[in-house]
Amino acid sequence: MEYRTLGHSGLKVPVLSFGAGTFGGSGPLFGAWGNTDVEEARRLVDICLEAGVNLFDTADVYSNGASEEVLGAALKGRRNEVLISTKAGLPMGEGPHDAGSSRLRLIRSVEEALTRLGTDHIDIFQLHAFDAFTPVEEVLSTLDVLVRDGKIRYAGVSNFSGWQIMKSLAAADRHGWPRYVANQVYYSLVGRDYEWDLMPLGADQGLGALVWSPLGWGRLTGKIRRGEPLPEGSRLHDTASFGPPVEEEHLYTVVDALESVAAEVGKSVPQVALNWLLRRPTVSSVIIGARNEEQLRQNLGAVGWDLSGDQVARLDAASAVTAPYPHFPYRRQEGFAMLNPPLAG
Question: How far apart are the first and last CA of the chain?
């Protein structure tokens, strides 16, 4: 397993990490993802560690804390072998302090996560959403206290816009508080919006991308093909409305290219899709999920080999979309491109 530095930090993370969203699954979204119990979770953790995958990602909102509980139980007795990443900020109830990033909420969220995970520290703690009602100074000063108290090691964000991240980083620099070093983002061959603003920001400011839903919300598993109905057992029947939208023709264009490349390299469609992501600038780790051992071993097969330059170019071309303003001049016109070339094709 290859390990990369997470942004401008000293933390080394594996290029593939494991997402525990299927652990303890319940409700219309997470129940459709999976409902892995502690025994099966231990088995999946075993397989991950054997392969060198030692970073496990979860969140308090995943099945209302059950994911953290199952993950904590599965990691019992081997905490020092692993890195734990969790998130907080989204609503966990209907009370006035059950959502957001206020000092009260963050401290309580971290304490509750530590209890559910059965640990005394969180290696990577991320804000799950930007809270426009809480001053960034309150958020960052609270994270500073949590770092000083040893309850979290590194801080990051997820689902933030570029200006929200920069406002926070500026405040951190001004006051000497810990900077965000991780940005957990949606990025896939059918969702490349990350490349417009957040990728250049990450490269400039030192945020490593932890990629969620790298298979396009389950659309790049190899089970969806042009001219065929959605498979009966696909979770997209129940969860498509929760995830990032994809235009049907664009999806099929990408799938066609993936199937062609997969046949050439003797790999599966999801393995090729994951391998493509591992080549992208600023990507520190790609978070893979699995409902069972077979799916996990399949996803682990995305490392240890390389796509050719021609194959990458074909996948780039098939997945490319027109850049929004103000980005499209830099993609279309030589004079603009000379001043600000894109990081990714």
Answer: 26
Short-list 287, 1, 301, 274, CA closest to 124: 287
* Res. 110: pLDDT tops 70: yes
Catalytic residue, candidates 3, 62, 154, 252: 62
Residue 204 makes CB contacts below 8 A (sequence gap 6+) with none
- Residue 150's φ and ψ, nearest 5 degrees, are 80, 10
Is 27 a residue whose pLDDT tops 80?
no
pTM above 0.90, yes or no: yes
Q: What is the DSSP string of 181-213?
A: -EEEEE-BTTB-GGGTTHHHHHHHHT-EEEEE-
Give the helix/strand (H/E) hosting 107.
helix 103-117
CA distance 249 to 240: 16
pLDDT(237) > 50: no
**Is 101 within 8 Å of 95 (Cβ atoms)?**
no
Question: Domains of the chain by range and CATH?
Answer: 3-248+266-307 (3.20.20.100)
Please report where in the chains the tokens 């997820």 appear, as a residue.
Answer: 158
Q: Is 325 tagged catalytic?
A: no
Give the rounded percent of residues in the chain with a pLDDT score beyond 70: 94
